[in-house]
Amino acid sequence: MSQSTVANRYAQATYELAIKQNVLTEVSADLQELTKVLALNDEFIALLSAPKISTDRKKELIAQVLTGAQPIVINMVQFLIEKKRLNELSAVAEQYQALAAAAQGSADAKVYSTRELTAGERAEISAAFSKLVGKEQLNITNIIDASLIGGVRVQIGNYIFDSTVASKLEDLKRVLVG
């Protein structure tokens, strides 16, 4: 989760507007899509950060690129550009997602495994671990990590549940070696 005070404030403001306009899910989806696109497109970020391009032109570009997005998202990104804080966009989106998930009774979880989880496995993990953190469901992001050897590691906020073979071998090594 973001530690940036600025990102937290922008995320909170965006969240409150989304609640007020009853578009919480739509804004969440738009921010997820936007962060995915920007993560894959370094040239676009460089363009939006270029000092030779005016702030007004950058805002126009964002309006053109985000034509199908919620106005809240477009305005928030344009405001970040105006305040020269576009580098905070991913942190704002991450914090917003956490606020939206909490409001909807869910939490984001990263599940590390040696292979892609099936829908059934995701549902079982969501059911088992959501109760442990007091949520109704988990939004699972599956991360493949072959070094785990087997098992899964679940990270929900600051909680980490590790039942991987690699961690069990490490524990055994500590006991035997001292």
TrEMBL record:
InterPro entries: ATP_synth_OSCP/delta_N_sf (IPR026015), ATPase_OSCP/d_CS (IPR020781), ATPase_OSCP/dsu (IPR000711). Its main location: membrane. Signal peptide: none annotated. It is a peripheral membrane protein. Keywords: ATP synthesis, Cell membrane, CF(1), Hydrogen ion transport, Ion transport, Membrane, Transport. Gene3D superfamilies: N-terminal domain of the delta subunit of the F1F0-ATP synthase. It is found in: Cell membrane; Membrane. F(1)F(0) ATP synthase produces ATP from ADP in the presence of a proton or sodium gradient. F-type ATPases consist of two structural domains, F(1) containing the extramembraneous catalytic core and F(0) containing the membrane proton channel, linked together by a central stalk and a peripheral stalk. During catalysis, ATP synthesis in the catalytic domain of F(1) is coupled via a rotary mechanism of the central stalk subunits to proton translocation. PANTHER family: ATP SYNTHASE DELTA CHAIN. HAMAP family: ATP_synth_delta_bact. This is ATP synthase subunit delta. The gene is atpH.
